């Protein structure tokens, strides 16, 4: 304990108790505290410096650390856990019709140039659409085409196959199979889903999230 | 049950003394049950042994005194007084065997129960207040970290979306709005107009197909329409009794003749 | 095709790392967090319950303790250090006797209707009382009672438990004695009256224990 020789009126709390006190004070404080402030709040005979040192050691490597900034002390969460402190929300949205069509054309016709995609879709492909598909890692650049202007081509990625549960692009059904599966009946779909504007990249989030 | 003395504390203490001395201060009481509880405590017994007859007498005395002091008593105090007077008589008189309702003892037990329950809740409230309370004895984090908000969007599409999309792009060219194509069409009216004069000049049975216009034979679409229209026209004329139709066996030529 | 045989893309963090994460999350928050909220913030594959248990043990006896209130968790300063924390006290308006009693009745009798509160207190409950308790987030509406009129019932909240330092309603002071004395019943206990089910919101026995 502190002063063995001078008989104190009350014994100072032991080191563990002092550490607990400093711990609680710092935890509940709305602002960082200086050592002097802590010392002033502790019972007579306590040693704020020793308690702070012990506390810093106790919290070293924990999810919460005792941080010193100049003359003040405060608990703060460990810097490596900063990512955890952000309130992270994920939201699932359906790919827009334009993006899905573009993706489909790339998958069926790869390697395919932008001009070819536009020819098949019958509308110009907005720059954002292909970029978005590349951001999602579903589409990447293929070889340049050996034609005048050497246009870039687009191909799908393994991540694309993964997402759609395909072993290979050969697994994609051909037009004839699509027709027999009833997927080539364009009319009902045209009736229910109006063609979005070219720059309307994404559909609104689907209700199921 | 704890000693009645430590049931209440602080602000409540003067009220207990008031009850002991039967100084009437209705303001201090939260209704007749509160008065009864204070009076019951003045019996200085465990509430389970409290004498309901004595309690009723005390309460009636309380009400009498209030009246003597011209203190306005709320209606429920008087209702309670009436009920206790009734209960007292039930407890003191021998039970009426014809009365099917609860006995005086049951009513008294019920009242004693209510008093004990109220007292128990008072003590529970005090116990709750004595606990180490947040913001008084225990403290929350003084510097809470407000989380940053981030939002991740996961884009999804499933295979059927993909296939439909492809199907859609590949069928766009084939698709054109349905337009009724009149070039190849012969209407029944046209056929009627054609049949009527021709039938007038023809006697006896003749093959219906002989009445087709001559320019349709090398155009299959037009031929089909002309056959259908002429047949329908013949049926229409038969319906009006202007012609007779006959067919010997299924798929045999259909023959027509005018009725005279 | 990619990870058919590899078990998981990322391994879950080890137990110590998980404990650090939960520690940081709870430390940073003034408001209690539910286990589900914590679980949602942790990386995939983590076990919030195990981390909470480990954390509660680690902090037992410290100046700051991991307190459970119903299904919520929060760090709170140890109650025995109250004297030290005087500077922190926020002067809260004292609850009136009527409000305190009403609160106690709701806690011990929940779910309880206004009529039942009045029956116990012997006076009508002034409209403001219950509303005030609801404003403080100590009381909320429970299910409607399946009796004529379908009256609303009141129950206490996790914030009530947190405020009064209760892990669950089972920890209400004197609950067992009151129950065995029959004082939580609507009528004087008869010999045959069966023990009522603990009808509390917070400590339904969870299957995991």
Structure keywords:
heterotrimer; A: 209 residues; alpha+beta; Arc Repressor Mutant, subunit A; 2 domains; three-stranded antiparallel beta sheet; 40% helix; 15% strand; rod-shaped; disordered N terminus; disordered C terminus; B: 260 residues; mainly alpha; 8 helices; 49% helix; elongated
Explain the overall architecture.
With 209 residues, chain A is of the alpha+beta class. Chain A is built from 9 helices and 7 strands, in the order H-E-H-H-E-E-E-H-E-H-H-E-E-H-H-H. Chain A folds into 2 domains: 77 residues, Winged helix-like DNA-binding domain superfamily/Winged helix DNA-binding domain (Arc Repressor Mutant, subunit A, Orthogonal Bundle), CATH 1.10.10; 104 residues, Winged helix-like DNA-binding domain superfamily/Winged helix DNA-binding domain (Arc Repressor Mutant, subunit A, Orthogonal Bundle). Helix content of chain A is 40%, strand content 15%. In chain A, the strands form 2 sheets. A 3-stranded antiparallel beta sheet of chain A has the order 1-3-2. Chain A has a 3-stranded antiparallel beta sheet with strand order 5-7-6. In chain A, strand 2 and strand 3 form a beta hairpin. In chain A, helix 1 packs across helix 3 and helix 4 crosses helix 6. Chain A is rod-shaped and about 95 Å long. Chain A starts with 14 loop residues before the first helix and ends in a 17-residue tail after the last helix. The N terminus and C terminus of chain A are likely disordered. By secondary structure, chain B is mainly alpha-helical. Chain B has 8 helices and 4 strands. A 3-stranded antiparallel beta sheet of chain B has the order 2-4-3, with helices on one face. In chain B, strand 3 and strand 4 form a beta hairpin. At the A-C interface, helix 1 and helix 7 of A face helix 1 of C.
